[in-house]
Amino acid sequence: MTVPFRFTRRAAAALVGAALIAPGAQAAELGATEDPIRLALVEWTGQHLTTRIIGSTLEEMGYDVEYVSVGYLVSGAAAADGDVHATLEVWDNNLGDLFPQLLEEGRLENLGDVGLDAGEGWMYPSHVAEMCPGLPSWEAVQDCAQEFATAETFPQGRFLSYPADWSNRSEVLIEGEDLNYKAVPSGSEGALVAELKAAAETDSPLLMMFWAPHWVLSEVDVEWVDMPQEIREEYSITKPGVFKAVWPGLKDKWPAAYEVIAAAKITNEIQEPLMARIDRDGEDTEAVVAEWMAANEDVWRPWIETATN
Amino acid sequence: MRAALASRDGRLWLGVGAFCLLCFLLAPRVVWIGEYPDALVIPFASWITTGMSAFVDSFRWLFRALAALVDVPLVGVRTALQATPWLVVMVLACALAWRARGPGLALLTACALGYMVVTGYWVQSMNTLALVVVSVPLSVAVGFGMGVAAAYSERVNRIVQPTLDFMQTIPAFAYLIPILFLFGFGPAVGLIASAIYAAPPMVRNTILGLRSVPAGVRESGVMSGCTPRQGFWQVEVPTALPQIMVGVNQTTMAALSMVIIAAIIGGFDDIGWEVLSTMRKAQFGQSLLAGLVIALLAIVLDRISFGLARNRFAGETPDERAARRQRTWATAVALALGALLLAMLFPVFDDYPRDLRVYPAGQLNEAVNWFLRHYSGAMDALKNTVLFFGMLPFRIGLNQAVSPFTWGFALEPWMTAAYGVAAAALFLWLLWRGRAGGALAVALVAVLLWWGTTGLPWPVVIAAATALGFQTGGLRTAGFVAASLIFVLVNGLWEPLMLSVYLCGIAVAISFAIGGALGVWAAHNDGVSAFLRPINDTLQTMPQFVLLIPALMLFKVGEFTALLAIISYAIVPPVRYVEHALRNLPQGTVEAARQMGCTPWQILTQVKLPLALPGIMLGLNQTIMYALSMLVIAALVGTQGLGQQVYLALSQADMGMGVVTGLSMALLAMTADRILQAASRRHQEKLAVGTAAPA
């Protein structure tokens, strides 16, 4: 990421000036630095990276940051009550009803996109292309249903869809387009991942709904089905949005932190290589983030500058 | 035969049979018989949501204060455990274990804690320990109090029993949202959920223990001049102690099994959180290593509490006791100081470095993959066989399960006729032989197998279950059964209910058959008993999520995987309870039977098992409860029953729906339990009559 030179210099000058001349003025801008800002760490690695990078940036500014491990859906309720102050990677394809409800009631504030280029669709482990050479075309999916048939779904093909409590869009699509598949709801993310790993290991057929970026995609080679745009739109299998949700009191208590969180953008290019190092190579998240922070000041420094300018 | 038909039960079942026949005939024509109409669903769920919201809004402050109160000991214990170097904690734990049972247990404790250190899970383990150390005494105290009250007052007992059933069977997921809103986010929520879930075994075992104190023992207390209070603490409680300790053991296990549920809320960085995160990534090795920590904690806590309760120094004089205590304390303090010194000199004893971690997760994953590559075909064949011949007939009935793809042939009309004739012939033959109960069982199973749990029209199920309730327990049981099923029906949860009945029914049958047999074996063989105990402890406390991962990889998302998961958990209570019941029989009766020349088999089937029936029935009750509580976990591998409904409610933050679904699961458990308990009581009465007659 490149930053206009003038902008950087002016911001830096402002920072230095504020620090030298009027520490009181800057403290007011930072807000209540004596109280810790609590950030939610939910179940997946990508979110840990997003949160820890933004959190480390806040620490650079002089904030005290605490990380709290909390369930993803619960993190919304916790942030609404101010028990945590931000949950920084909320996926709108898996929201439940609680997040929208809290956002609508104004008990939670949406601080804009995380910056991830997320995708969602039907996919298969690469070896499946040998069983159905027409893939990834949409027609091939329809023609190859037999290749995916199992004992439970025979004579239809087996399609592994999202857990029933996430969404039933694939079920609706299969029914609406009259595809010769039977959707099997997977029950949990772990189940989706376990099946994908097992299929790759045993070269068995698998067609499933999934999303990216996801760490398992650095472990298993997959390809995405070319789903026609009009079908994507009709069944809303579109790009998921990923946003940052914060406690509404954040703006008044820590104004500068509020601005930094709003400005921060975590892209796939940042997340994916770090995710692979943690989940595949077993490195420690904190160490990986610290190393990244040291090497990428040009990425995060501008967030601070936008905020304090 | 005519007598059987003319009896009260005979007329009842004739009526039920005629009613069911009518339903079957009408079902194809009248839609609402086959499927309960959506328009008649009563919106209890939304009423509950409204009511609860109002309640939460007005009483939130009270519960928040309670949460803050519980937080104090929790944070205290946690901070203390965190601040202390691991070597010191380990030395103190080993000293306690030595005091409780001797060097063997101390060694086991050292190994268990050492495992937590070298795998790098020390911090998380201590956080979990803090949670358990606070919640178990809470559950034990509340449970003991409730148990004592219920043991001495039939009126209290009548309220306590259903409350226990609710506490144990309403899945924690269902009330997680309400208590989250009430208590606020934080570890106190997990603590409270775990205390609710863990108390019932303590209550049940306290009641059973106190009620089984022989009248003679109680009288001897009175004769020797005990006040009621002395009689209670010095005669009855010690006599009931073995049973009460089973309760403490089970409460500890239950609290540890809730660790994982508490982690869903999070906020504590405990080992449950670790398991949950690795489960989400389907990392078997990692989640097994983390899950083992919970199992090891359970085993160590259980052995130490057992040892302390048994008090191996019971025989010593007061002087000896004082001397020994002094020695114990001196040694413990000296060791702890030594450990502290070591920790200060060598930081490795304070904070174990990450570089020295032994963490064979990769190897474990590779082992699973190896197995997968070599045996996935065989496992697939196994799954399909069980599915086609065992599970499908129960779910959709033989009339749909038999097809060329599954059984290798299509169902011809003559087969249908043959099935009907065979069932009718067996039914009539049994009736003619005067075995009305057997005949009834044949009729019910034949109908069930033909149509499957999901194929039966709802009026048929309700009528048959109510009649069964009436026959075993009279009007009261019948009323309860009918009311429960109708509650589920009008809430629009009939279909998920029958799916759950099907899955749990099969799981309970298999678990009880295998577990019961193992329990009998363990009761007669100390080696088997010692071998099974750590396995049981592990199965019961190792988060089920862990076992789901390899099961998923081998058997894919679906009901078979769910069945395996349920069985792996529900098989433990029959083993434990059957063994315990058989081992604690009055020795005189068994000895008398032996002297009369009974063979071991006769002693088992005609003396021991009938005498042990109350304990065995408690085991069956717990098997059903455990199976139902696993439904929620089973939903994680894609089952469609009530368990899935709970997640739907959770994801929608729908308090009312969560509660209604949870209640439905509890009512299902209680219906099964009431019918079984009534049947057992009837059987016992018959036995009592049988033994009384010759005298």
From TrEMBL, chain A:
InterPro entries: ABC_Gly_betaine_transp_sub-bd (IPR007210). Keywords: Signal. GO terms for cellular component: ATP-binding cassette (ABC) transporter complex. SUPFAM superfamilies: Periplasmic binding protein-like II (SSF53850). It comes from the Bacteria. Residues 35-294 form the ABC-type glycine betaine transport system substrate-binding domain. Residues 1-27 form the signal peptide. CDD domains: PBP2_BCP_2 (cd13643). It holds the Pfam family OpuAC. One of its GO terms (molecular function) is transmembrane transporter activity. This is Glycine/betaine ABC transporter substrate-binding protein. It comes from Rhodosalinus halophilus. The lineage of its organism: Bacteria, Pseudomonadati, Pseudomonadota, Alphaproteobacteria, Rhodobacterales.
UniProtKB/TrEMBL annotation, chain B:
PROSITE patterns: ABC_TM1. Keywords: Cell membrane, Membrane, Transmembrane, Transmembrane helix, Transport. Residues 125-305, 497-676 form the ABC transmembrane type-1 domain. Gene3D superfamilies: MetI-like (1.10.3720.10). It is found in: Cell membrane. The chain crosses the membrane at residues 12-32, 44-63, 75-98, 104-123, 130-152, 172-198, 251-268, 288-309, 329-349, 414-432, 439-468, 474-494, 501-524, 544-572, 624-643, 655-676. It comes from the Bacteria. One of its GO terms (cellular component) is ATP-binding cassette (ABC) transporter complex. GO terms for biological process: choline transport; glycine betaine transport. SUPFAM superfamilies: MetI-like (SSF161098). GO terms for molecular function: amine transmembrane transporter activity; carnitine transmembrane transporter activity. The keyword Nucleus does not apply. Pfam families: BPD_transp_1. Belongs to the binding-protein-dependent transport system permease family. This is Glycine/betaine ABC transporter permease.
